[in-house]
Amino acid sequence: MEQKPLIDFEEESTKVISDNLEQVTRDSSKDPKETTDSEEAKSKDDVTKLFEDFLEKESLFVNKKVLQIRYIPDTIKHRSKQIEILASILAPALRKEKPSNLFLYGKTGTGKTLCTTYALNKLKKIAEAKDIPINMVYLNCKLKKIADTEYRVIAQLAREIGSKVPTTGLPTDEVYNIFLRKLDENKQIIIIVLDEIDQLVTKIGDEMLYTLTRINQELKQAQLSIVGISNDVRFIENIDPRVKSSLGEEEIIFPPYNAIELREILQARAKEAFREDVITEGVLEKCSAYAAREHGDARRAIELLRVAGELAERENLLKITPKQIDSAEDKIERSRIIEIIETQPKQSQIVMYAILLLLEKQDGKLETGEVFEKYKELCKQQAINVLTQRRISDLISELDMLGLINAKIVSKGRYGRTREIYLTISTDMINKIKETLKKQLY
Ligand SMILES: Nc1ncnc2c1ncn2[C@@H]1O[C@H](COP(=O)(O)OP(=O)(O)O)[C@@H](O)[C@H]1O
Ligand SMILES: [Mg+2]
């Protein structure tokens, strides 16, 4: 019988694909005003031809799904130790004993979500086959509208185990009660996975985690274990010590992959994803080297390979060469920068916009004071409250940390200190960023 997967992931971001579409749309609609009827007809034909050619072409991919981030490969390399510990901590659930709470941490793309999903899917399979009452709930705390208030989180957990909870309207205590009652209906072990738990705490604090880790005291039949996963390595140090000790009963560290490990991971994925001989020499090495530089991020490595494949296909190439990896790296980096810009708070966006406007007129470097003046002007135009120069200076240093600008402190002798501000993004990106900011701000 077909097993229902434990985790029903939302579809992976299709940003790159939609970027592609945008590109195609723009290119095929050059200056519509100037096209005559026959030219228009011709361009329609071109489009039809493009689609037809596309259909006729043999794809470079045999199974592109394999390069989706959520794909679960059959074998997981370089994580056998972590998976083994994970499994041995969860195993007591099979004897109806409560597994210890568990905390996994490591940087993004180190395989935390994959290994957890993998182990829990196997546990679920055995439990179902042997009729052992284990229930598992996976929640990605990064998701908006699910994990941005305590109410929503508990409501979602309750729904996942089969309760009906309205999206708003009840007191939070009542939602807890619904959740507890449902949990305790059966003698069962419930394992709750809170992935990207650091984001949850950033959004709503650690009070809720405290409550969750105490829930067992109120349960008569069921027993609850929590698996917390964090990309932020220092997360657990900064939470309430009581939560820390109970959530971190057991800890598993996921270290970054090195370039050699990344290459092996990629090789296995590439073999399933592409037709034979599509990947030429040096491609996987280059991907791994870029991703290792990034901090040993397998997600980045896989994304690079997928985007490179898409680019090669669009250029009608039959093979992927290291050149496409460079183009893919460039493309991903660009969308990363735009995404950072889009998700900044409004005040930071205004500061960034001020910097760009100033540098448009004068080449080279700026000082904090100049940026502050321009910033004030922009705020007034839009009736936004003006922060102090001190705060603006902080926002400037945050933009520096994000890698958008370089803001180095220089001493001006007895006039104190200031920052010298340069742009670090390439000049051809500047217009795109300006457009993005304009759209966000106006
Ligand atoms: N050891 C591995 N073998 C195969 N694929 C891996 C491995 N580690 C990570 N991946 C892949 O890299 C991507 C990122 O892994 P993920 O588990 O989401 O990282 P994290 O949760 O630590 O950010 C996923 O597509 C995953 O399948
Ligand atoms: Mg993850």
Description:
The protein is an alpha/beta fold. The chain has three domains: 109 residues, Helicase, Ruva Protein, domain 3, CATH 1.10.8.60; 174 residues, P-loop containing nucleotide triphosphate hydrolases (Rossmann fold); 98 residues, Arc Repressor Mutant, subunit A. A hairpin with a 5-residue loop joins strand 7 and strand 8. Helix 12 crosses helix 13. It is globular and about 70 Å long. The termini are far apart. The site of adenosine-5'-diphosphate has 20 residues, from helix 4 and helix 12. Adenosine-5'-diphosphate binds next to helix 4 and helix 12.
Notable characteristics:
single chain; 442 residues; alpha/beta; Helicase, Ruva Protein, domain 3; Rossmann fold; Arc Repressor Mutant, subunit A; 3 domains; five-stranded parallel β-sheet; 52% helix; globular; binds adenosine-5'-diphosphate; binds magnesium ion
